Predict the structure of HmuY protein.
Amino acid sequence: MKFLNIIPIVFFGLFAINCPKEKAADDGSAAALLLLVSDVSKSIPGITINATSSSDWAHVNLKSVDPSVTVTNSDAWDVRFKRFVVATNSGTSGTKSGGSCETSTTNYDDPTISSSSCTIAVDSLQSQTGDGGFGSANENASPSMFLWYSYDGNTHILSSKKKVYLIRGSDGTSYFKFQMLDYYSSAGTSGYPKFRFQKL
């Protein structure tokens, strides 16, 4: 009788030994996730920036772990926005070694895009008169990205030309492919440029 009582205990012990163990609380997945987030060589699918101010710039550090967080006008920023105007940390816009140029494609996934796809130009004073009252600007900005959009004078809607640009970071050694996607928030408010980028 005692022998029969021992059998279930033995089976339970064998089951516990052969049962797969649960993952430990710290199995490295958090570190892997942080690495994934901080790896800017991976394409960032789309970041929307609040650039609704017509007097203050919204600065972005493309080299940062979280480029969706705007930074101050410090040495680290790579690209900045004021409404529809885009500038890089170079020339008349900044004191660093940034710049930009327009590649010959609208295909963001073109595998031939590289840091030598076009000739980098530094920022300079750009001027334009808005169509139907929209788009008037006299700003220190990127000459290649100054007209990244098309404007419909009937609907007064701005839309991206989907051109792919090359941006040189403020450090002068980082290069990013960059594409403007939209200019409106999910609620349809203007002044919310949306873009994607990838470190090359």
Summary: Residues 44-199 form one domain. The first strand starts at residue 44 and ends at 48.
